[in-house]
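F.,

This is the one I mentioned.
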């Protein structure tokens, strides 16, 4: 009998990540492109005994930036949500709403741009091994007065994470108020904004491959070049909250690859990512925007030791 690897991954997402229980209200948000994955997840949710509502986002409604009143009602009453729309830059405010609603009312799994291949390779895994290494990275960085990140392309940035809480994305989205990604495999916090000064030379921004250069002074983006980042800044417009540093993350999934989809690329070993915009309540910046920028082959120094060198972990 042929093994259905997609269904195995969907079962993992439902039973090991979200840990849906009988009687829960589960809201699944999908589009036409992701229907095969949505059907596998809905099948797993039904087997788990959850009451499942599938919301199909049609092309006539896109790009969607704000939820309708009916959708807000659905989101506020669900005990768990899963988002898997094809990634589009114009829809970042709606994605931000989903994260906020999940943290406020229930819990939410974010899978923007997920593919069947990513499900089979990166979701049907042993999450316990991933969790152990990710916690090790957090221990090496937590409360560092100064973190220095460099790479051969010209990145050189320094900042403090003193007093900032860390979050780990290790495939456990079972607690009320939690949100995480599948595929999983990162730890992240928000740099202390006033300490964040230097240059980032990026490989990818918001699902756009291509080199870009970003210069920061005391947490604010002051100069940028590169087609991908220029597209992002055009979308931000005059909203200055979209130009403030909001996140520092480290990829910890050894199976993840650098590719045009940030959902996978930001989990790759040997990479870090920084986001401008919302800090998810960790830092001081609040914004409807949040755009991740990927840096590869990094060297990370903190607390007097080198944690990674040229994209290879030393811990």
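My design for it:
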């Amino acid at each position: 009998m042929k093994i259905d690897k997609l269904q195995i991954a969907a079962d993992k997402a439902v039973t090991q990540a979200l840990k849906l229980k009988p009687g829960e209200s589960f809201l699944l948000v999908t589009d036409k492109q992701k229907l095969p994955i949505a059907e596998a997840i809905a099948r797993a949710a039904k087997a788990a005994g959850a009451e499942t509502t599938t919301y199909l986002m049609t092309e006539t409604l896109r790009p969607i930036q704000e939820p309708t009143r009916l959708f807000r009602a659905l989101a506020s009453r669900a005990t768990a949500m899963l988002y898997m729309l094809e990634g589009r830059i114009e829809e970042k405010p709606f994605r931000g709403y989903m994260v906020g609603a999940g943290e406020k009312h229930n819990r939410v799994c974010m899978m923007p741009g997920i593919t069947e291949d990513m499900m089979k390779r990166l979701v049907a895994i042993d999450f316990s091994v991933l969790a152990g290494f990710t916690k090790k990275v957090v221990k090496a960085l937590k409360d560092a007065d100064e973190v220095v990140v460099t790479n051969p392309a010209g990145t050189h940035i320094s900042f403090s994470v003193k007093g900032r809480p860390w979050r780990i994305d290790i495939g456990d989205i079972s607690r009320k108020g939690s949100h995480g990604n599948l595929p999983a495999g990162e730890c992240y916090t928000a740099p202390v904004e006033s300490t964040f000064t230097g240059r980032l030379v990026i490989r990818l921004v918001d699902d756009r491959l291509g080199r870009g250069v970003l210069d920061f002074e005391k947490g604010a983006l002051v100069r940028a070049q590169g087609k991908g980042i220029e597209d992002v800044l055009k979308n931000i417009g005059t909203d200055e909250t979209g130009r403030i540093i909001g996140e520092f993350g480290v990829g910890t999934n050894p199976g993840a690859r650098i590719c045009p989809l940030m959902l996978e690329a930001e989990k790759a070993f040997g990479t870090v990512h920084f986001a401008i915009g919302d800090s998810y309540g960790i830092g001081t910046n609040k914004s409807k925007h949040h755009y991740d920028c990927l840096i590869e082959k990094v060297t990370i120094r903190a607390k007097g030791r080198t944690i990674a060198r040229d994209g290879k972990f030393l811990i």
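Residues 126-313 form one domain.

Talk soon.
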